[in-house]
């Protein structure tokens, strides 16, 4: 078990999310950065979809009541591991480098190196909250899944799957954390409803990230986008990555907790291979949209799964040579 | 891959959404509401596709108002899906099938329906007449979305059509029965919202541990049954 000693807002239990239930209004939820989750689980030899902690805002102080092994992925969170009371035993916890934990140790994750970016903590075996509708992800809006359907709080105990130390894995180089702030996108179903100026603005201007962004959507700031004329669209299914433009003309990129049906015009959809960047958008940065072809979008997604296959293979070999 | 913008023969518009989803718009773009005949065919399409999720590699099948969104897994060809749906569509008929009728007991007015007086005043009818207009008819579940178990109910009495509140509430309590535009709905979970709250029900609309998880299903008929007084 992990005892939560202190938790800033928005640290939640997440896996890859819920699928196949959008017709009933159930959102995807799940990690905003699926790359970070898969890296963490591969490094620890976990199941691909094992639940992790998505750390929104620090600080997060955790005390481990049993031995474990963890790895931080995503943004650097100024992490340290303290064993016992002796300050000489403080160990730095860096992204991508797994650490062994003895019972009674305290893991402190202070703050993200980039404000607004997320850290991900994978634990050997995975976090063992009950599956709800096929996922361990927290649905914050509807208060189910994860740990009691909410963000972590001091005093919580997080159940873990039993850890067998033989699952040890070697250190490895994971792809470095470097969001480009360029989101490749495909024109959306309502693209032609927008005027030429809106098309230019959409692809060319840097979009600021509003402070009101959250797991439901990234709200963007910039010059407003206008339609040729006002339209009344009938509500239809929407997906994470869709870029909706409400009446105020400022786009919203729908994220994992977004509702399943919407009625605003959709100018574009961010390609799936770039959606992980939504996890790391800070209010002090800007993003650009870059038009790409459908073929490139499909290829980018394929490349990503190849990357995980290679990483998995590399780790298996490292583990093998370790055991000799 | 190429997805044609429309199929003139059937007046079905198909668009690509992201790299792996298709949106089929079946209702004429000039309509401000999806005609029930069109929606019935969308329900039939859903019933037909649902058992084939695995065979067709469908991750999501989401009926909307006069439209349907399909999300495919990586191995599925979108052109194949498009052909399948466009071939099936003209074969569906809009005849009424007998669906379920779900009764929702509602406490109208008072603290359960804080906007009822405002709505009655704006619509120029008495509160009893408003309750009668809202409860004495059958609604259809066009689709579900927005929140788990939130049903888009069509068929509101024309006398009750009002624009949304100017200032949305930050939190609408679960179980709130509300109206806005040509629709009425029940909020399954707490949420911000600009609809007018006229009543409250204690019925649970979404229970993750139950099967099915939502009380209302697409195509269901819904009747609101007034309960004397407030709680």
Strand order across the biggest sheet of chain A?
A: 12-19-16-17-14-13-20
CATH topology of the largest domain in chain B, what is it called? Cyclophilin
List the helices and strands of chain A in order.
EEHEEEEEEEEEEHEEEEEEEEH
User: Cα distance, first to last residue of chain A?
Assistant: 31 Å
SS element count, helices of chain A: 3
Q: Could you estimate the helical fraction of the residues of chain B in percent?
A: 10-25%
Which features would summarize this protein structure in a list?
heterodimer; A: 324 residues; alpha+beta; Cyclophilin; 2 domains; seven-stranded mixed barrel; six-stranded antiparallel sheet; 20 strands; B: 231 residues; Gyrase A, domain 2; seven-stranded mixed beta barrel; five-stranded antiparallel sheet; 5 helices; 14 strands; elongated
What's the helix and strand layout?
The complex is a heterodimer of chains A (324) and B (231).
Chain A: E1 2-7, E2 11-14, H1 34-44, E3 52-55, E4 60-64, E5 68-74, E6 79-82, E7 90-93, E8 99-101, E9 106-109, E10 119-123, E11 157-158, E12 182-187, H2 196-204, E13 207-209, E14 217-221, E15 236-237, E16 242-244, E17 252-254, E18 261-262, E19 266-270, E20 286-291, H3 294-322
Parallel strand pairs in A: 12-20
Antiparallel strand pairs in A: 1-4, 1-11, 2-3, 3-10, 4-9, 5-8, 5-10, 6-7, 6-9, 12-19, 13-14, 13-20, 14-17, 15-18, 16-17, 16-19
Chain B: E1 6-7, E2 12-17, E3 21-25, H1 36-49, H2 53-56, E4 58-63, E5 67-72, H3 78-88, E6 101-108, H4 116-123, H5 127-135, E7 139-144, E8 151-154, E9 169-172, E10 176-180, E11 183-186, E12 191-193, E13 196-200, E14 221-227
Parallel strand pairs in B: 6-14
Antiparallel strand pairs in B: 1-2, 2-3, 3-5, 4-5, 6-13, 7-8, 7-14, 8-11, 9-12, 10-11, 10-13
């Amino acid at each position: 078990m992990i005892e939560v000693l202190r938790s800033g807002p928005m640290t939640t239990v997440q896996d890859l999310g819920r699928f196949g239930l959008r017709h009933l209004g159930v959102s995807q939820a799940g990690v905003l950065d699926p790359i970070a989750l898969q890296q963490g689980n591969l490094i620890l030899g976990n199941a691909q979809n094992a639940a992790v902690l998505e750390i929104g805002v620090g600080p997060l102080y955790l005390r481990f009541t049993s031995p474990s092994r963890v790895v931080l992925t995503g943004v650097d969170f100024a992490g340290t591991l303290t064993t016992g009371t002796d300050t000489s035993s403080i160990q730095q916890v860096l992204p991508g480098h797994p650490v062994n934990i003895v019972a009674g140790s305290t893991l402190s994750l202070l703050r993200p190196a980039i404000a607004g970016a997320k850290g991900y903590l994978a634990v050997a075996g995975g976090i063992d909250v009950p599956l709800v509708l096929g996922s361990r992800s927290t649905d914050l809006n509807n208060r189910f899944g994860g740990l009691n359907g909410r963000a972590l709080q001091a005093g919580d105990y997080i159940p873990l799957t039993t850890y067998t130390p033989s699952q040890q894995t070697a250190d490895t180089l994971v792809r470095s954390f470097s969001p480009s702030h360029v989101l490749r996108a495909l024109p959306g179903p309502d693209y032609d409803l927008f005027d030429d100026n809106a098309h230019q603005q959409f692809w060319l201007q840097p979009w600021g990230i509003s402070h009101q962004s959250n797991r439901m959507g990234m709200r963007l700031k910039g010059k407003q986008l206008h339609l040729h004329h006002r339209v009344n669209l009938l509500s239809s299914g929407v997906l994470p990555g869709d870029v909706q433009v409400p009446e105020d003309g400022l786009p919203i990129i729908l994220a994992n907790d977004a509702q399943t049906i919407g009625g605003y015009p959709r100018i574009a959809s961010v390609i799936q291979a770039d959606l992980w960047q939504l996890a790391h958008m800070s209010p002090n940065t800007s993003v650009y949209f870059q038009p790409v072809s459908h073929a490139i979008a499909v290829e980018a997604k394929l490349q990503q799964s190849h990357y995980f296959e290679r990483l998995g293979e590399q780790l298996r070999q490292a583990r093998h040579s370790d055991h000799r | 891959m190429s997805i044609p913008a429309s199929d003139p023969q059937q007046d079905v518009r198909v668009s690509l959404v992201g790299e792996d989803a298709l949106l089929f718009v079946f209702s004429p773009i000039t309509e401000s509401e999806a005609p029930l005949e069109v929606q019935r065919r969308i329900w039939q399409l859903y019933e037909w596709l649902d058992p084939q999720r695995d065979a067709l590699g469908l991750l999501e099948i989401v009926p909307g108002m006069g439209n349907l969104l399909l999300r495919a897994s990586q191995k599925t060809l979108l052109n194949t899906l498009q052909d399948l749906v466009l071939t099936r569509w003209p074969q569906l008929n809009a005849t009424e099938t007998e669906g379920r009728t779900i009764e929702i007991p509602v406490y109208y007015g008072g603290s359960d329906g804080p906007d009822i007086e405002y709505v009655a005043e704006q619509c120029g009818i008495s509160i009893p007449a408003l309750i009668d207009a809202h409860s004495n008819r059958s609604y259809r579940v066009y689709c579900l979305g927005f929140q788990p178990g939130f049903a888009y109910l069509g068929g509101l009495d024309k006398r009750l059509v009002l624009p949304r509140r100017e200032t949305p509430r930050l939190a609408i309590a679960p179980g709130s029965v509300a109206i806005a535009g040509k629709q009425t709905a029940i909020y399954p979970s707490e949420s911000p919202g600009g609809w007018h709250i006229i009543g409250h029900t204690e019925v649970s609309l979404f229970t993750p541990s139950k099967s099915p998880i939502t009380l209302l299903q697409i195509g269901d008929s819904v009747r609101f049954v007034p309960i004397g007084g407030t709680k």
